[in-house]
Amino acid sequence: MKTTTIQTRIDTNLKKSAESILSSIGLDITSAIRLFLTQCVVQRRLPFQAVAPEEPNEETIAAMQEAEDIASGKIKPKTYDSFYDAIKDLEE
């Protein structure tokens, strides 16, 4: 069987994350790419549904900003005297 080389540049963090996940299931990057390409040929399509990630809505964006502000010390987190007070605040 004649072989060929494929070279690609990817983000270092993406590679490290993928390697970690793949190694946990017994694959390396090369084997995973070979598996992907084989499945493309067998299925005559991408072997998964390609979808764009959902864009966060305004409420989620505001919550993420609040979390960042709390983490950076810009604002103080809410505190409660009891679990019931926290639940009550959520219901309002």
Question: Would you mind describing this structure in some detail?
Answer:
- There is one protein chain.
- By secondary structure, the protein is an all-alpha fold.
- It has two domains: 1-51, Arc Repressor Mutant (Orthogonal Bundle), CATH 1.10.1220; 58-91, no CATH class.
- The protein contains four helices and no strands.
- It has helices at 12-24, 29-43, 58-72, 83-91.
- The model has no long low-confidence stretch (mean pLDDT 94).
CATH architect. name of the largest domain: Orthogonal Bundle
Distance between the termini: 68 Å
Structural class: mainly alpha
Measured as a percent range, the helix fraction is 55-70%
Shape: elongated
What is the number of strand segments? 0
The CATH superfamily of the largest domain appears as Met repressor-like
Q: How much is the radius of gyration in Å?
A: 23 Å
Q: Please trace the helix and strand order, writing H or E for each element.
A: HHHH
CATH class of the largest domain: Mainly Alpha
Note the main attributes of this structure:
2 domains, 4 helices, single chain, Arc Repressor Mutant, 92 residues, mainly alpha
